[in-house]
Amino acid sequence: MFTGIIQALGTIQKLDNRGNDIRLTVSSPTLDMSDVALGDSIATNGVCLTVTDMGADYYCADVSAETIKLTGFAHYSAGSTVNLEKAMRPTDRFGGHIVSGHVDGVGEVTQIIKHSDYVEFWVKAPEAIAKYIAHKGSITVDGISLTVNEVNGAEFMLWIIPHTLQETIMGSYKVGTAVNLEVDVIARYLERLMLGDKAAEPQSKGIDMAFLAENGFLRK
């Protein structure tokens, strides 16, 4: 588990194609590797990866074809900069929100508006996960725990302060940049609980307007 508080930036050194997966090598002179062991997890742009090899300033991880297809890894190359966070320990401060490192979809930066003391980012999420994004709720963007400041359909807006721009890769975002999105896990569990007994039915599609009407959640 992670909290979405970025600990360091890393650079992708290698992407070795091994047929069914890719061996990723990430270097970071600022990430403390002294308490990392083989098999530990490191969130790399919000994607939970298992350390398979490591040194004082780098680690390797295997990225499956499925992960590449469902995340921004399809857009990365040697030299790309990535956000890094080691897995949370029970004694750590919980500075962000519950982040699993399981990306729900890839969004796209649609607007960047600079203000005097912050930058306004608009991101378009895949329609399938838009229902989980709420005003003043939490969302993870490339591994960063952020607060949603406004929602308009499948698009949402973030106010980003200079510190976040400096300490993460958000300072390099441009209109069109693809970003990994993970919605608040509490929203997903709440949806499942609201299904009640219907959750056990095969191919349950989750909550939609028809489900709400059928179960009395909508006023006539």
In spatial order, strands of the major sheet run 10-9-13-7-8-12-11
Q: How many angstroms separate the termini?
A: 42 Å
Could you tell me the radius of gyration in angstroms? Answer: 19 Å
- The helix/strand class is mainly beta
Subunit structure: Homotrimer.
Catalytic activity: 2 6,7-dimethyl-8-(1-D-ribityl)lumazine + H(+) = 5-amino-6-(D-ribitylamino)uracil + riboflavin
Keywords: Repeat, Riboflavin biosynthesis, Transferase
Protein name: Riboflavin synthase
Short description:
With 220 residues, the chain is mostly beta strands. 13% of the residues lie in helices and 37% in strands.
What can you see in these coordinates?
Lumazine-binding repeats lie at residues 1-97, 98-194. The protein has 4 helices and 13 strands. The chain has 220 residues and is mainly beta. The strands form 2 sheets. The protein has a 7-stranded antiparallel sheet with strand order 10-9-13-7-8-12-11. The mean pLDDT is 90.
What is the topology?
Elements: E1 8-17, E2 21-27, E3 41-44, E4 47-55, E5 58-64, H1 65-70, E6 81-86, E7 105-114, E8 119-124, E9 138-141, E10 144-147, E11 150-152, E12 155-160, H2 162-167, E13 178-183, H3 185-195, H4 209-214
Antiparallel strand pairs: 1-2, 1-6, 2-5, 3-4, 3-6, 4-5, 7-8, 7-13, 8-12, 9-10, 9-13, 11-12
